[in-house]
Amino acid sequence: MEKNQFEEERLIFVNQMETFMCQKMFSEALIMAEERLLRFPSDVDARAFINLTLIEMGRIEESRNILHELEKDIARLSFGYLRAADTYWDKGLIQDAVLCYQKFIALNPLSENSREVAEKIALLQREEYLADEDAESDIADSPGPEFYTITLADLYIQQGHPKMAADILAEIIKREPANVQAREKFDTVNAALTQKSSFGDTVELTNNLINILSCWLDNIGRLKQHAT
Fold first, then answer.
1. CA–CA separation, 137 vs 140, rounded Å?
2. Is residue 36, in this structure, part of any structural domain at all?
3. What is the DSSP annotation of 48-72?
4. CA-to-CA distance for 142 and 171, rounded, in angstroms?
5. What b-and-e string marks burial along 133-158, b requiring 16 or more CB atoms within 10 Å of the CB?
6. Residues of the chain scoring pLDDT < 70
7. Which of 41, 73, 105, 113 has the fewest Cβ atoms surrounding its Cβ within 10 A?
8. CB distance 109 to 158 below 8 Å
């Protein structure tokens, strides 16, 4: 099927599904979405609408199963970015490598590879920083925090190391006083650390930070927006 034809059919499908959902014709919507999924087994729109329809019909366990399968597909997709990043790095394409590593983490932040990838990002950004500033001669005297990033801080939070994340964010703020994102995250982490000191609940602290800062759940939550 040609690309333009596929896109036209996709728009017709999405509009029809929206009409079904607005009119609460959930059985009809489910049948139509399942038929499309049979034609296009990897179709995101069909799977998203099947999931939304199941939720509306009260079939929550089936909805959870769909999301679980979707998570596995996203995890598999993320490794495509990881392999591309490694290849870009081998070719000396630093910015492309960093972008792909960041996309891998965004799609699969809880992967066992995530910390290693974050360290690769930090290393590549440090190399790029030194190249841009022509500062190779200062490497021996460099303290190193110039390559700390918010991505690296997020990874430490997701892996249960909020104090390390706070230290990184503090260095970023010192380097970039106008960085609003770093300051907001630093305040959030500090507040959680204070709460930990008061109540000693490490598990709850880590879960709260992940809920605030992890983009994984945000990706899942935007399925409906993508479908429309």
1. 8
2. yes
3. HHHHHHHHHTT-HHHHHHHHHHHHH
4. 14
5. eeeeeeeeeeeeeebbbbbbbbbbbb
6. 1-3, 127-147, 158-160, 195-228
7. 41
8. yes
Report yes or no on 22 lying in a domain: yes
Place of tokens 């034609």: 39
CA end-to-end span of the chain: 22
Kindly state whether residue 169 falls inside one of the protein's structural domains.
no
Model pLDDT for residues 65-119, shown as the tens digit of each residue:
988 888 888 888 888 899 999 999 888 888 899 889 888 887 877 777 777 888 8
Tokens 């964010």 -> residue? 169
pLDDT at site 161: 73
Domain boundaries, position 53: 1-58
Q: Report the candidate in 199, 195, 172 with the shortest Cα–Cα distance to residue 185.
A: 172
* Length of the chain counted residue by residue: 228
pLDDT of residue 60: 94
Diameter of the chain measured on Cα atoms: 69
Residues with Cβ within 8 Å of residue 111, at least 6 apart in sequence? 75, 78, 104, 117
Beta carbons within 10 angstroms of residue 71's beta carbon:
16
Distance of alpha carbon 130 from alpha carbon 52, whole angstroms: 49
Buried b (16+ CB within 10 A) or exposed e, 75-84: eeebeebbeb
